[in-house]
Design a protein that fits this description.
This protein is mainly α and 58 residues long. The chain contains three helices and no strands.
């Protein structure tokens, strides 16, 4: 499986926007797709998409 590492919340949100446009889906579905390939929370225990950064996947 391919894993991606995003350097900032803005970079990850931009990726969500691209997924939304290319797949024609809503934000939550695009975010879930990104969550499946993003490896940030597993390595740092911080979800880069969360504003409060309480921890990994729910």
């Amino acid at each position: 499986m391919i894993e991606y590492k995003y350097n900032s919340r803005e970079e990850a949100l931009e990726a969500v926007k691209v997924i939304m446009k290319t797949r024609n889906i809503d934000f939550n579905m695009a975010r879930a797709m990104l969550c499946n390939i993003c490896s940030n929370c597993e390595k740092n225990n911080i979800c880069i998409l969360e504003e409060n950064n309480k921890g990994g996947r729910e």
